Amino acid sequence: MIPFSDEEIYEAVKSNIPKVSQYVNSHGGGITLVGVKDGSVYIELIGTCSGCSMSLMTTKMVVQKELRALIHPELNVVNIDGTPENILPQDAVTA
């Protein structure tokens, strides 16, 4: 169980996105924080990373791994990629 509210997680992720984005930026892409719901962070990979066949690996092995190290080890990161299972919940905390 993550001991932080979705609002707290949103702010923590927002402030750490520049650190986490370095790898994605080096490949001509970027990360947009879309929202947080129940400890899951919803992002969108943009630029050359949008739609890339390696985007799932980038999301889990780079973005999620780094955010877990910086914020909480149970954090889950979901890339909103247009598939039905990866959509932002309507009641997610957003900007």
Please, could you describe this protein's structure?
The protein is of the alpha+beta class and 95 residues long. It has one domain (6-79): Fe-S cluster assembly (FSCA) (GMP Synthetase, Chain A, domain 3), CATH 3.30.300.130. Helices cover 38% and strands 22% of the residues. It has helices at 6-20, 22-26, 55-70, and strands at residues 29-37, 40-47, 76-79. Strands 1-2-3 form a three-stranded mixed sheet. The protein is globular and about 35 Å long. The two termini are 24 Å apart. The mean pLDDT is 93.
Shape: globular
Q: Ends: how far apart?
A: 24 Å
Mean pLDDT, all residues: 93
Query: What's the helix count?
Result: 3
What structural category arises from helix and sheet content? alpha+beta
- Overall tally of structural domains: 1
Named CATH architecture = 2-Layer Sandwich
Multimeric status of the protein = single chain
Labels describing this entry:
95 residues, alpha+beta, GMP Synthetase, Chain A, domain 3, 3-stranded mixed beta sheet, 3 helices, 3 strands
Write the layout of secondary structure elements.
Elements: H1 6-20, H2 22-26, E1 29-37, E2 40-47, H3 55-70, E3 76-79
Parallel strand pairs: 2-3
Antiparallel strand pairs: 1-2
Nutshell version of this structure?
The protein is of the alpha+beta class. It is 38% helix and 22% strand. It has three helices and three strands; from the N terminus they run ααββαβ.
